[in-house]
Input
Amino acid sequence: SWAILFFIDDFAYYWFHRISHESRLFWNFHVVHHSSEFYNLSVAVRQSWFSGLLHWVFYAPIMLLGFAPWMFAVMHGFNLIYQFWIHTRLIDRLGPLEYVLNTPSHHRVHHGVNNPYLDRNYAGVLIIWDRMFGTFVEETEEPRYGIIKPIRSYNPLWVNLHGWFEMIEAMRSKKTLPGKLKCIFASPNMDFDDRPKVNAAA
Output
């Protein structure tokens, strides 16, 4: 049952992480993690003060499958601890492990803001989910780290809240209800998403 829970938890993390990039509502929590223009181990613990408010939505169903909460806590903790060490520029490719595991190389791509790296490689532990669902991109050059619109601030309050202010400003600029709803639920990059589509078989 531990092996099954491992795959279920990692699969849930992939979708939670992906939606955290593809929906502005969720991105407003996750942007804190990506706002650093540096890439090192400290970025792993650069997290939103409020991320727990929606985090549970993706994991509560796991309990309904019959797994004890303590088992989930242990497994999810392992998943998050694994991701700590991949926030580094000091480790190069890891040979055959690159095909299965999320590695520093794969995660550097994820933190890249330049095309075609933007919004790719959402894996927690297993990179197979990205390969399966067409979001995998291999590292071919040094990524440019950070977010599309740098915040240029070290104020922790502003780092945590700036995304919400940008969302409200975007909503105010829209005249229709569908337009306003897109500002909440659509991609935070919807106004400048010109990247080429990645073949699902990549």
User: Anything to note?
Assistant: The chain has one domain: 2-185. DSSP finds ten helices and no strands in the chain. Confidence is low (pLDDT under 50) at residues 192-202.
